[in-house]
Amino acid sequence: MNYYNEIKNELLNNEINRRVKNYSINKSDLNTYYNVGKMLSEAGKHYGEGIIKEYSKRLTSGLGKGYSKRNLWLMLLKSI
């Protein structure tokens, strides 16, 4: 048995699985942020630009950091 090749194959398989997993996570994030941006755009039409600030406060309170006004604006801009 060639242990080196077995070890190398095991590590390569793990790396491939990790990259596929990361791709799936990134794709999911992009889809989510795009959809959120579209919804923010629609909400802004009904409630005005202040909705970003309001939603930022509420999302940060409910879900934790990562939902600053800047991040929500970026989601909105990416959806246009």
What is shown here, in short?
The chain contains three helices and no strands.
How does this structure look, described?
Helix 1 (3-47) crosses helix 3. The protein has helices at 3-47, 50-63, 69-78. The chain is elongated. It has one domain (3-78). Helix content is 86%, strand content 0%. With 80 residues, it is mainly α. It is built from 3 helices and no strands.
Radius of gyration: 20 Å
Share of helical residues: over 70%
Number of domains: 1
Biggest β-sheet, characterized?
Answer: none
Number of helices: 3
- The oligomeric state of the chains shown is single chain
- Proportion of residues in extended strands: under 5%
Mean pLDDT: 90
Query: What gross morphology would you assign?
Result: elongated
Total number of β-strand segments?
0
Kindly, what is the distance between the CA atoms of the first and last residues, rounded to a whole number of angstroms?
57 Å
Unreliable runs? none
Structural class: mainly alpha
Written as H for each helix and E for each strand, in order along the chain, the element string is HHH
